[in-house]
Amino acid sequence: MLSRIPAVARCLSLAALCAAGPVAALEFPLPPPGEDIVGQVQTVTAKYEDTFADLGTRYDLGYLEMIAANPGVDAWLPGAGTQIVLPTRFVLPPGPREGIVINLAEYRLYYYPKGLNVVHTYPLGIGREGWGSPLALTKVTAKTPNPTWTPPASIKAEHAADNDPLPSVVPAGPDNPLGPFKFSLGLPGYLIHGSNKKFGIGMRTSHGCFRMYNNNVLEMAGMVPIGTPVRILNEPYKFGISGGKVYLEAHTPLDDKGNPSVVDKHTAVINALLKREDLANNLRMNWDVVRDVVAAEDGMPVEIAVPSGSVVSSEPLNMQ
User: Fold this and answer.
1) What is the pLDDT of residues 235-294, one digit of tens each?
2) Which domain does 57 fall in, by range?
3) Residue 120: enclosing H or E segment and its boundaries?
4) Which residue among 11, 120, 207, 209 is the active-site one?
């Protein structure tokens, strides 16, 4: 029977990676045909002044995914010498590997440059309570450096109710919530853009738009052409193959409004598996491990397939 390997034991040390200089942005070669996983989980030793917000900015990770990967660690004062897990291994989202793919459940964007055998991935801030980000198939319709911001009436009313009135137009600059660059989408009112606040990337903090670290959105500005397709998903359970083994990556499910959802996890996992027709008819899983992965919701791929000849748990799957 498979067992979950402790997170730190599964990680790679960053010491060798950092020896040559700063960690690069999260760009990975695409896996071979029939495989789905990129990257490796890593660890870093915290310094006294480190916070999860600082580490997320440094390693292209969002706040909530840092929390999920490091249960029990104080996000604001991890403490000097604390080993921090960096969840930098990913099952690629289901569907075509082209253009921009946003998975709301993991607060993350994937970009597949046309003609190149690589994927770039970045953390996102998404819509908060009452301002959920939509599921859609759309495209990039415009690119705007140093954008101004014209707050819609709904947001102006919200700020006025909090005695924080907004001007009709916010000029470009350090106080502009769109940051240094925006991508307009074929969804009226929705953008991919930077931010004037470091905190909030990888969380439900926006009014429905997709916020990025400024260095990330500027990097994308130089790569993503107008007309690039954008596919927005909400997939908390991703199955993937690597090296002949089957993995499951689990995140906290979100409802249609972008809030944590109480769902039938058994049904949700089975439905995610059935979308993978190459797996659904032939896969023998260890449901005990699946339960552990779904309960942890730590966003890190874990092997869930049982090797040939092993004993499979026969009890029904019950994750409620």
Assistant:
1) 999 999 998 889 999 998 887 666 677 677 888 888 888 888 777 566 677 888 999 999
2) 7-90
3) strand 118-123
4) 209
